[in-house]
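A reminder from the course coordinator: this example appears on the midterm review sheet, so study it carefully.

Given structure:
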């Protein structure tokens, strides 16, 4: 089922999220719906707050990048209750956009590599390190679980220049091809 994506200005996008347990109601269905919603919106990552749920759950599928890098094409992951363990001090700058902030992309500095602990959809625990583009996408989605958006990481002057476009999104004037839920 394709769910509406909550856009900039929705309070749930700024909430600290809660951990969930293996008995979370219809978890497998929720995960499937999140992937369906993400694919329908042509995204590569989606966190639960983006569909209105303040829980620690995110999904990522980098298959759209398989032509550029076959390793990315095989990267599909579900992270439940993730905890960031380490982040490199070295950063890389790259362009980011967000399904919750349609039509806006900006350069964002992110750690080059990260180490993260999480459980998968079967509640098996993993501790993994990611670098490069994988690390960027995981950090972006992880931020959603911390109540942060990519616009929080950009230069304050750039953020000021985006203010009218962000206000338009808050007012429900987002131009996108997927279902949204604005304020």
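Designed residues:
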């Amino acid at each position: 089922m394709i769910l509406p994506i909550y856009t900039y200005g929705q309070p749930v996008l700024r909430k600290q999220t809660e951990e969930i347990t293996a008995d979370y109601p219809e978890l497998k269905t929720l995960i499937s719906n999140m992937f369906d919603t993400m694919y329908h919106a042509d995204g590569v990552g989606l966190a639960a707050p983006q569909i209105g749920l303040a829980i620690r759950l995110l999904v990522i599928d980098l298959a759209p990048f398989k032509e550029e890098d076959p390793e990315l094409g095989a990267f599909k992951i579900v992270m439940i209750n993730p905890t960031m363990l380490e982040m490199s001090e070295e950063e890389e700058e790259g362009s980011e956009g967000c399904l919750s902030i349609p039509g806006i992309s900006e350069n964002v500095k992110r750690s080059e590599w990260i180490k993260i602990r999480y459980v998968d959809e079967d509640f098996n625990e993993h501790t993994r390190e990611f670098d490069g583009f994988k690390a960027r996408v995981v950090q972006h989605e992880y931020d959603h679980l911390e109540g942060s958006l990519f616009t929080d990481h950009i230069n304050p002057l750039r953020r000021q220049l985006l203010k009218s476009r962000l206000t338009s999104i808050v007012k429900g004037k987002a131009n996108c091809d997927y279902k949204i839920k604005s304020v």
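The chain has a mean pLDDT of 96. The chain has one domain: 5-181.
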